[in-house]
Amino acid sequence: MAIAFSKYHGLGNDFVLVDNRHQTEPLITAEQAVKWCDRNFGIGADGVIFALPGQAGTDYTMRIFNSDGSEPEMCGNGIRCMAQFIAGLETADGQAPDQAQAYAIHTLAGVITPKLRADGQVTVDMGEPSLLAEQIPTTLGAAGDKVVNTSLQVGENTWSVTCVSMGNPHCITFVKDVAAIDLAQLGPKFEHHSAFPQRINTEFIQVVSRDYLKMRVWERGAGPTLACGTGACAALVAGVLTDHCDRTATVELPGGPLQIEWSNDNRVYMTGPAQRVFAGEMTELA
Ligand code: ZDP
Q: Is the CB of 76 under 6 A from ligand 1?
């Protein structure tokens, strides 16, 4: 059976999107998603995203498999891609999306609301960050404590880390020079550290100024991606908690910049692009 897909990216963080509006279970398994994401033997992507029917009054449900087959709660760059993808599907169905179309999307991290803007960018209400150790989850503090500037031993070095959940778990560390970080060597050690029972996404941040951060990321289940939307949001929140930055800043990723705001209503807003690249049909992989 051939399954139609579209390929999108948000700042080079790339996803295969599947129109799954007619059934509540994803059209492919996690094992198949691993094969689809393979850059040599498959389509090539950081993850596969399914646009499923809404639940509990939402317009749609988003589920995602990472390229290793694990299922994260949320995906910031992915949900911008999903908003563009849905708008395209609705247009193809003869429903013209409104000028500023907003979608309420059910995710494992709660209801997330992306809004298409006239300039082609997408602004996403990413909800409220969670800061308590038990919510991350991490053992780097008592259950009800925040984990801010806490020491973490990784290999031979001690890092000062701040942990933030944007629905999915992030560990942020501020460094002098992100270019000097050996991601391939360090990333897996953070990801699989015993302090993080659900594993962790790790962001290395260089503070250029109070409204400009440079970030490199090692993603849980996907490795060194060009961008991570939830990670950029978590980094800004960590930057405010540690007084490295203001509540509004540009976060520059290897794939380009995102605008992030931790609003006074405690919600985090992310604005950035989402680009359709190609569409195709996937046949069964051996
Ligand atoms: O939490 C995780 O396991 C992440 N790998 C999910 C993907 C996050 C993403 N890069 C983002 O932009 O938030 C899609």
A: yes
